[in-house]
DNA sequence: GCGACAGCTTGACGACGGTCAATGATTTAG
DNA sequence: CTAAATCATTGACCGTCGTCAAGCTGTCGC
C-alpha cells in the first residue's frame, strides 16, 4: 500500500558512490529522533527501520518501515522531521549532511535523485493517508499485509511480519486488539494462514486485495463483522468506469 | 495543523524569477489530474487550490489546500501524484517542467529550494496523517480550524472557511454530518462563533488548541458526546514531561 | 521440567461516528 | 416574490472499534 509502482525507487546503491560510513544498531535503538539536527542520511544495508512521529499526548503514528536498499532521513531540513528506530539489528551507510551538501553543488543528477526520493517518500505517506482516511480496520490490515508481501524478499506468498501487532496498530491507526481481531478474521475466512503469529501465508490474494481496496465485490465484505451492506460512501462509487485514478470531485 | 513552523516555507516569489506564464481557472476547474504527465509546476497568485486523491471505490481524500504564494504540483516525477482543483477563481504562474529541468542543471540553489518545498509538502501530509490517525472527530475539526486560522490573512480570530462541510469531511476522513455536528458542538460550547455557516470566529483559542492536540486538560474533553473520560491510549501519555516531540517508543 | 514474562487472543460493553431521512437556510433563476 | 437547487443541520438508529479485563501462547532462564 505504501510503496507504489508510480513512485520512483530509492537511490540504487550503484548511483550512490559517495563517502559513507557503515553504522550498526540493535533492535529498538534509534538512528535519530524527530527534532534532532540532521547529521546524515542513511541507506539501509540490512535490517529494518521504523519511521514514526509521536503526538503530544503520546500517541505514536508510524509512517512506514524501511528495508534493505531504502533511504532513511532524507527530509531536506535543519532537523529531522520524524524519528527512526531499528526494529531488528540493522546496518546502514551514513552520508553526512555536509558531504551531501557539498556533492549537491556539483552534481545536478544527485539533486534529481534526492528529489525523486523525496517524492517517493511523499507518495508513501500519501498512500498511508488514503488507507487510514477511508478504510475500515480489516481493510487497513489487508492493505498492510499486501504491502509487506510485495516488499518481502521471501517466497511470494509467505513472509514474516516485520511488525508486532502493536506496531501495526500504530501504523494503521488501530489498537492492538483490533489488529488482532482483523488478523484472526482473515485467518478464519481462509484468506491468510498464520504460524507463530508472525509468519503469514496469503491464501487468497485476490480477496485480500479486494479488502485492501474495498472493491466490495460481493464475497467477504470489508467489515470485521461482515454483516453490513454499507460501504464507504463519502463519495459514492457511481463512476467506477475509469480504470485509473481519475475522478473529478462532486460539486 | 498541516503547516508547521518546522517546515520550510514555499519558495518566495522573489527567488522564483524564471520564465512563467500566468494561467486562470474558475472554481471547480482542475489544474491537473493524478496520472497526467507533469507539464508544469504552479505558484498560486490568488485563489485557492485543493490537492486530493481518489481511491478506487470513489472515496476522495483531500491532502490539503494551497493559497497564495504556495506551490502546487511539485512532485518530481513523470506524472502528477495528486489531482489539483481550484475551489475558487484562481490564478497561478506556471513553470513548465522543461524549463524547470533546464534550470536545475545550472542552479544548485534551485534544486535545494525544490527539495525544501518537497520536504514541506511531506511535512504537511505527515501532519494530516497524525491528525487523522489518532484524533476523534471534534479534534480533527478543531485542528482544521486552527490551521485555517493560522493561514488566513484575515483578522486574527475571524476567517472565512475555504472549504465546504463536505470538503472538510474529505480532508479529515469524516462525513458531512459528523463535520457539521462537530462544528455545532464547538459553537454550542462557545469555542467558536459561526455566521452564515462559513465565517468562523475563534472565541476560545486555547480550548480549541487543546482539542486539536487532545491535551485533555480537564475542561471540555474532545469527545462529541463529552461524557467519556477515555482518551487516546494507544500509547498512554505517561511521559509527557518532554516539551518537544521527543519520545522513544515503548518496547 | 518449571516459572516468569511478553506478546497475542478473545470476550463484554459502550461510545463514536456512519447511514438514512427529514427539515432548515441560502442562493440563483425566473 | 416564488420555485428550485444546493448546502447545512438535526434526529434516530446501529455497526465498528476502543476500552477494560480476562485467558492463552511462546520464549527465556534456570
TrEMBL record, chains A, B:
Gene3D superfamilies (alphabetical): Jelly Rolls, Winged helix-like DNA-binding domain superfamily/Winged helix DNA-binding domain
UniProt keyword list: DNA-binding, Transcription, Transcription regulation
Keyword Transcription: yes
Location of the Cyclic nucleotide-binding domain: 25-121
Keyword Nucleotide-binding: no
Residue ranges occupied by any HTH crp-type domain in the UniProt entry: 135-206
Pfam families for this protein: cNMP_binding (PF00027), HTH_Crp_2 (PF13545)
GO molecular function, one term: DNA-binding transcription factor activity
TM region(s), chain numbering: none
Coiled coil stretches, renumbered: none
GO CC annotation: cytosol
PROSITE patterns membership: CNMP_BINDING_3 (PS50042), HTH_CRP_1 (PS00042), HTH_CRP_2 (PS51063)
Name listed for the protein in its UniProt record: Helix-turn-helix domain-containing protein
Amino acid at each position: 500500500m505504501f510503496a507504489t509502482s508510480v513512485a520512483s525507487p530509492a537511490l540504487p546503491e550503484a548511483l550512490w558512490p559517495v563517502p559513507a560510513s557503515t553504522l550498526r544498531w540493535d533492535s529498538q535503538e534509534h538512528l535519530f529522533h524527530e527534532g534532532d539536527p540532521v547529521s546524515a542520511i542513511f541507506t539501509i544495508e540490512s535490517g529494518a527501520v521504523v519511521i514514526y512521529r509521536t503526538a503530544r499526548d503520546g500517541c505514536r503514528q508510524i509512517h512506514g518501515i524501511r528495508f534493505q536498499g531504502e533511504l532513511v532521513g532524507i527530509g531536506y531540513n535543519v532537523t529531522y522531521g520524524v524519528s527512526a528506530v531499528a526494529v531488528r539489528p540493522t546496518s546502514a551507510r551514513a552520508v553526512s549532511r555536509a558531504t551531501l551538501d557539498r556533492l549537491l553543488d556539483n552534481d545536478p543528477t544527485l539533486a534529481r535523485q534526492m528529489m525523486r526520493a523525496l517524492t517517493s517518500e511523499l507518495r508513501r505517506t500519501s498512500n498511508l493517508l488514503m488507507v487510514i482516511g477511508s478504510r475500515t480496520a480489516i481493510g487497513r490490515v489487508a492493505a498492510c499485509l499486501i504491502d509487506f508481501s510485495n516488499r518481502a524478499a521471501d517466497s511470494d506468498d509467505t513472509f514474516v511480519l516485520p511488525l508486532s501487532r502493536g506496531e501495526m496498530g500504530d501504523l494503521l491507526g488501530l489498537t492492538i486488539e483490533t489488529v488482532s481481531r482483523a488478523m484472526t478474521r482473515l485467518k478464519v475466512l481462509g484468506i491468510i494462514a498464520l504460524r507463530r503469529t508472525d509468519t503469514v501465508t496469503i491464501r487468497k490474494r485476490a480477496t485480500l486485495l479486494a479488502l485492501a481496496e474495498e472493491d466490495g465485490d460481493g464475497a467477504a465484505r470489508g467489515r470485521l463483522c461482515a454483516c453490513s451492506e454499507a460501504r464507504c460512501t463519502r463519495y459514492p462509487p457511481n463512476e467506477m468506469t475509469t480504470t485509473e485514478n481519475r475522478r473529478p470531485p462532486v460539486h
